[in-house]
Amino acid sequence: MTVSDALRGRTVAVLGGTGPQGCGLARRFAAAGLDVVLGSRDAARAESTAAGLPGRVRGAANADAAAAGDIVVVAVPWDGHAELLTELAPALAGKVVVDCVNPLGFDRQGAYALAVAEGSAAQQAAAILTGSTVVGAFHHVSAVLLEDPDLDTVDTDVLVLGDDRAATDLVQDLAAVIPGVRGVYGGRLRNAHQVEAFTANLISVNRRYKAHAGLRVTDV
Ligand SMILES: NC(=O)c1ccc[n+]([C@@H]2O[C@H](COP(=O)([O-])OP(=O)(O)OC[C@H]3O[C@@H](n4cnc5c(N)ncnc54)[C@H](OP(=O)(O)O)[C@@H]3O)[C@@H](O)[C@H]2O)c1
Questions:
Q1: Residue-averaged pLDDT of the chain
Q2: How much distance in Å is there from the Cα of 75 to the middle of ligand 1?
Q3: Would you say residue 208 has pLDDT above 80?
Q4: pTM above 0.90, yes or no
Q5: Is 56 in the pocket of ligand 1 (CB under 6 A)?
Q6: Nearest-CA neighbor of 30 among 63, 65, 4, 3?
Q7: Among 79, 74, 24, 73, residue whose Cα is nearest residue 52
Q8: 8 Å CB contact between 121 and 101
Q9: Are 142 and 212 a contacting pair, CB within 8 Å?
Q10: Percentage of residues in the chain with pLDDT exceeding 90?
């Protein structure tokens, strides 16, 4: 899949880009020819992670990555989400912020969705980042598949949620740069909770069937 006109020339930053999800997304965005900046709490760690990826990927402290990105993906654990976004809110103003964070708990029965005061991680991001346009996406894509350099395509749709049509269109384009992936509009941000929570169901599927399950929306 080619990079759309709307996406061409944009830099994608990934906060928490040293983890499997951020690193996997970065690998795929860079493979499509996009400029990518990996963010970390430790710039040196981001630089060394970036050095291991092909394409135009560099590493930086999260604040510098946030400043450099036109589109900024948030790929940190739920535990650090509010704190990091509060700190970076000024740097993220005016940007499209893509939240893929799933607030989940784990116990002996497996994964389960946590209650979030704002409704969802994406809504929490929007409440903190009042100067940014927040979009929810990439919740269900397996980091294992994204990170696998031998896998040319990733077989899944990505649900894209948000309240700004131009921003959700842009993030659908971003999803579509990954071969095999289609970005599908999935509703307003107020419906992000179910999408984030559904990840717990997918984790149950994965455990039962020893899979890295994705999601396909039919008839669109
Ligand atoms: N793994 C998946 O398959 C998957 C799929 C879909 C969505 N997600 C979501 O994507 C997010 C990242 O997943 P992951 O598996 O990559 O997570 P992770 O490895 O636990 O964390 C990602 C990175 O976040 C940084 N980090 C850790 N604790 C932090 C804190 N308290 N504050 C700020 N930064 C912190 C770390 O980077 P530094 O130490 O370098 O700063 C870490 O490498 C999660 O919210 C998850 O729900 C994951």
A1: 98
A2: 5
A3: yes
A4: yes
A5: no
A6: 3
A7: 24
A8: yes
A9: yes
A10: 99
| Percentages (nearest 5) of helix, strand, coil residues in the chain | 40, 25, 35
Instruction: Quickly state the pLDDT bin for 2 (edges 50, 70, 90).
Output: confident
Strand ranges (E), 18-121 = 35-40, 57-61, 71-74, 96-99, 104-107, 110-113
Q: What is the pLDDT of residues 13-30, one digit of tens each?
A: 999 999 999 999 999 999
Paired tokens of 144: 């294992």
What pLDDT sits at residue 89? 98
Domains of the chain plus CATH, in order, are 11-209 (3.40.50.720)
Indicate if the pLDDT at residue 144 is higher than 80: yes
Instruction: Return phi, psi of residue 100, to 5°.
Output: -115, 20
Closest residue by Cα to atom 36, ligand 1, is: 16
Is the CB of residue 151 below 6 angstroms from any atom belonging to ligand 1?
A: no
Q: How far is the CA of 166 from the centre of ligand 1 (A)?
A: 27
Q: How far apart are CA 139 and CA 177, in angstroms?
A: 16
How many Å lie between the centroid of ligand 1 and the Cα of residue 155? 22
